[in-house]
Specification:
AcylCoA_DH/oxidase_NM_dom_sf; 3 domains; Butyryl-CoA Dehydrogenase, subunit A, domain 3; EC 1.-.-.-; alpha+beta; four-stranded antiparallel beta sheet; Acyl-CoA dehydrogenase family protein; oxidoreductase activity; oxidoreductase
Amino acid sequence: MTELDPRLRRLQAQAREWAAEMRPYALEVDADPDAVTRVAHLPALARVAALQIPPEFNPEPLVLGDQTYYLMSASERVVFFEEGACADLGMMLGSPGGPMSGVVVDALGSQEQKEWFFGRLLARPTWTFFALSEPEHGSDAVNMATTLTAPSDPDGPARLNGVKRYVGNAGRAEFGVVFARTGPGPLGFAAALVDASTPGFATTPVRTIGVRGAGLGEITLNDVELAPDRVLGAHLRPSRRGMAAWLRTFNLLRPAVAVMGVGVARAAYEYVLAERSSLRATERLRLERMERAIATTRRMLRAAAAAVDHDPSAGHFASAAKATSARLAERVTLAALDFFGPGARLEHPLLDKLVRDAGSVEYMEGTSNIQRLGVFSGLLRGAFPPLQATLLPTES
């Protein structure tokens, strides 16, 4: 699926309309990240807060004509989040709701855990966190240092200890998902629902150059007590809640994260079109190359989304798309500066912001090194048909 069907085109049109309402606030949120909470009433942000909730828990999905949308599929997410990221990546990442943690809860949570989590999201606009990355190990889950220690008393609480860094919405979130080690090996992992008001839970803002609206922060977990019913997947077999289960969950998330790079690149391309009324022949050629690279990466992402919707274990193509998208965002935004001369970053603050935001795509949901491991794993399994290589954009 590289071309949108009528149903997804309708979703795209609505998302584009909402994105246009976000765009005027981009520089305000960049200057003051707390402004996200003041613009949470905008349709794009308000609707995200009540979407990505499974149908059985969501009485108010998005209805467009005779079509109903929950944003639960990767294919729907890549359409929606490209438009949001094109308007403002920081604002999109800083929106209320459970865009990442909700996917984990839906995959691993019990009926009671899902009711607790999604019920709170539906009650009112609520921010959540997704705490995976660590100061020393980044998003490398294999070397994770945060621990979840089982209780010595069968009726007592488990305890979380560790530090998570670069967590979106860390300071404004009420609750979220924390990933931790329970023991060695691929089955020694756990994900838990944690309330930010729990004693021992503390947050510190992390100053960033880009995506300031995302409100990145550091979370410190110092003997945070955790009731047994807050550990996700406890009702499942160990093999269904271990590393393999996490990877399937991340595969579903990855196309939506990756398409944000396409959105940022497209914003820079459209900025050049809007601000440069006349172009020399060489400039037109460069702009056409940018457009082709964006379109090719978008097709790649849509194909990756369709693949994981069909089979959540097929994440190798999504990994290739994520690495490509991160490179695209940086390359296109930097190239856009050349159309405005040496003072471009000072004279065009919105374009300067896009360049700063583009650099963050590399670190979202795993760096390119992590994604290359996923690609390599797919190559070893023979999971890349030869024709798919034609989807990879050239370095131009």
